[in-house]
Design goal:
The chain starts with a helix and ends with a strand. It is elongated and about 60 Å long. Helices cover 39% and strands 19% of the residues. The relative contact order is 0.14. It is α/β, with parallel strands linked by helices and 327 residues long.
């Protein structure tokens, strides 16, 4: 199972970036309200950093923030709304010039965003949305519906249009989990010979994916496929199938484009994965923060912004590294 040393090191505590020099457009380092943000603190509050997807999100925000002259502090709420609340309070106390939040919940995070906004700190959301508009300055996410359709279409092809299958769903409080599941259903429901026999929630977690897969195999030993809401759950399912000696006859599909998943696709263990452009939107959010702090506007028309996903198959796996296409 994938748990890189770098990811574990990040998870131990918050990281602080060094201050680099930078200047605003037109030679001014001050935003519209007159505050000097040069060298200010951007606080990123994100999900578990033992997952390569969120590690990449954190590393990208940190690197881009440093390039533009900000300090960056990284912390993880571990998908716990109470911990997220405490970390937002810390970011406010530390006089952050902006907060980047990967929400712990579509509803539970609303109050935290409002509290920071009321304290005069702009909040920018990445990867997942909250169930309200006009509060965060921007919400940048993968186009999960489009990505789910890409994955489901490939799943149908790999299944040969027929057979029993099961589904591993992500965290129930995360809108991405339902959007992906709905996207899968919109495609798979068009094929009457494909039969969904069980759904289980595994909270985006590899160990839970392994455990839930074992349970589903006991109930449905004749399944032909597993469609998963993310790569970590899919990799857990693969481990369970290997243990049962069934991987050679069960199709497994993932979502995220994590390095271990891309390797598994290339090896023929995972039928495909769908790359989320986490580097792209993590880069974009820092640029929008910088623009907002200097001008009072993000420079982007819409608060909610979606970034298209990409399909990775065995034929194209060698073209991808660290959530990006090579070259």
């Amino acid at each position: 199972m994938f748990r890189s040393k770098a990811a574990k090191a990040l998870a131990i505590g918050a990281l602080a970036a060094l201050t680099l020099s930078g200047c605003a457009a037109g030679g001014s380092d001050k935003p519209a309200d007159g505050k000097d943000t040069k060298g200010g603190l951007i606080s990123l509050v994100t999900s578990p950093l033992d997952n390569p997807y969120w590690t990449t999100e954190a590393n990208t925000v940190k690197a881009e923030g440093e390039k533009l002259g900000y300090k960056v502090n990284i912390s993880s709420h571990a998908q716990d709304p109470k911990k997220e609340s405490d970390l937002i309070d810390t970011a406010i106390s530390n006089k952050s010039v902006a907060i980047v939040l990967d929400p712990a919940g579509a509803d539970s995070s609303i109050g935290n965003v409002r509290r920071a906004t009321d304290a005069g700190i702009p909040v920018f959301l990445v990867n997942a949305e909250i169930n309200t508009s006009g509060l965060a300055k921007a919400q940048l996410v993968s186009n999960n519906a489009q990505g789910a359709v890409l994955g489901a279409q490939q799943f149908v092809q790999a299944m040969g249009n027929s057979g029993k299958y099961v589904e591993l769903k992500g965290l129930s409080t995360d809108t991405n989990a339902e959007v992906r599941s709905t996207g899968y259903a919109s495609v798979l429901g068009q094929f009457p010979e494909l039969e969904l026999v069980q759904q289980e929630t595994a909270d985006w977690d590899q160990k839970k994916g392994f455990d839930k897969m074992q349970l589903m195999l006991q109930a449905h030993p004749d399944i032909k496929g597993v469609i998963s809401g993310n790569d970590q759950m899919a990799l857990g399912a693969i481990a369970a199938l290997k243990q049962a000696g069934m991987l050679d006859r069960v199709v497994v599909g993932g979502f995220d484009g994590a390095p271990d998943a891309v390797t598994a696709v290339g090896a023929g263990e995972l039928a495909y994965t769908v790359v989320q452009p986490v580097v792209d939107f993590s880069t974009a959010v820092v640029k929008q923060i910088d623009e907002f702090l200097k001008t009072g506007k993000t420079g982007v028309k819409d608060e909610k912004q979606s970034f298209d996903c990409f399909l990775v198959t065995k034929e194209t796996a060698s073209e991808w590294v660290d959530f990006q296409r090579k070259g």
